Amino acid sequence: MLKHWFWNLMSAAVIIWYSTITVYVAFKGWKDIKTMLGNLAKLKDE
Amino acid sequence: MTHFSWLVDGSIIGLYLLVTMVAGVMVRKYVGKVEHFLVAGREMNVYLGIASLAATEFGVVTCMYTAQNGYRYGFSGAVPGLLQAIAMFIIGVTGFCIKPLRDSGVMTIPELFEKKFGPKIRWAAGVVIVLGGLLNMGVFLRTGGEFLVQVTGLNVRYLEITMTALLLMVAVYTILGGMLSVLITDFLQFVVMSGGLIVVTILIIGKVGWGTILKAVETHHGAGGFNPFVNPELGWQFVLFNLMLNTAAVLTWQTTIVRVLSAKDTKTGLKVYKGTAFFFVCRFLIPGIWGMAALAALTASQVGPNTLHAMPLLLSQLLPVGIMGLLVAAMLAADMSTDSSYMITWAGVIYNDIIAPFRKKIWSEKKGLLWNRMTVALIGVFLLVFGLWYPLKGDLWTYLGVTGTIYLSSMSALLIACTYWKRANNWGAAAAIAFGAVIPVTFLILEQLPATAELAKRIGPYYSGIATYLIVGAAMIIGSLLKPQPKAPALEGGAHA
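Above: the input entities. Below: the structure tokens describing the complete assembly.
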């Protein structure tokens, strides 16, 4: 297993990074949507 | 025998589709101008951009081919993902090409070309982008349908009607809400897709075993399963071709670049690139692991001659009820986000760069929106006729590679020259577009003709691809240098301060 350290490390990094970023982007992206729609609504009112 | 349950898994999928449709249709009220429709009013922020870019660039077709790469080449098959991630991160950090592109305030790449090369090159670039893009996209629907048939055990007779219904749903929200609907639904689809991909990967590793997967790769592919340079089917030419292809895709693939153009400012666009870069490793490695697990768990006779079906076959046997619904919802999310994004993007180029030169006067926002919506609808019809009801003949991978290279080789050369080379002009641009189209198509013809098939096989797709990028670059340089330089205007009566 150790001789394939690069792909072991890369595969672990993929799963950890992807799980973390999914949760993080889910929260932050939701805020981005609210801001974006708020700005567009303001522009429409003007 | 699949573990798909129409009651449990079907309910999960139905709920996902309902939420997506409601969200996609609800935002239509914010669309008042063409700019809202095509680039979401340039109000997209970083995290929404990351979610949208990731969701768009992962479709069922991606999952199928990257899994096939894992099955056929082991970890070496995931190298294109590493190369794309490196290219995207470096471009995101340096702003190479994309910074001047976003700073210019254009909505499409050909619009930028007009400033440097004139309206004819803008139009020609628009045609190449749309042709390459639509032909590439034309096969997505059927491949997605084949995955669903394999995994759910759906009767193949219902494939066309199921995918037609799915496309209709995507078309409805894309036509009504344009890029705004695409962004909102992409966000939901990113969450569902990512959740599904992570859960299924952990489950597969748990059931098959990481050690078993590594051993299977070692047994079937030896050192070539871990290092593409020593793999007899890949080699340095595979790595170099993919480096060129993926760098060009990061720079000019319209569905990728539209995220930079929709960003609220240049800095946000660059952050989206930096933040999404590592996703491209996941995009290749996660389905690659599924493919390698299929190599470990299934026999060659179970898989049959088409290795594309190895991964869905494994999933249909391995996943329990409930997780199967999550997987199908995730794959539908992946497919819908890709389809909607591609439809709006190519429609944007058709409207902005192909139809625009024929307009006698500036159109009202209302008329512009109507034309954009009609174009999206027409692309939907094309997808149905070409991708679903018209059976594609020949090798799908060659087809995707050829259509992609026709577009990417010339557009990347034009973009680099347009942004960084003062001497670049329309002669060079025209030569680059011509060579970019002729070489890949010639290679495809050589492959099809019995008399030249052996020669094409000896050349191979990687050498042919590398040659295309090099020759297109040379054509851009030589063509530009051949055009006589305009003479400097003569000063009357000597020089005056």
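Note for the figure: Chain B touches chain A at residues 27, 30, 32, 36, 40-41, 43-48, 50-51, 75, 82, 180, 183-184, 187, 190-191, 194-195, 197-198, 201-202, 210-211, 214, 226, 278-279, 281-282, 285-286, 289 (CB under 8 Å).
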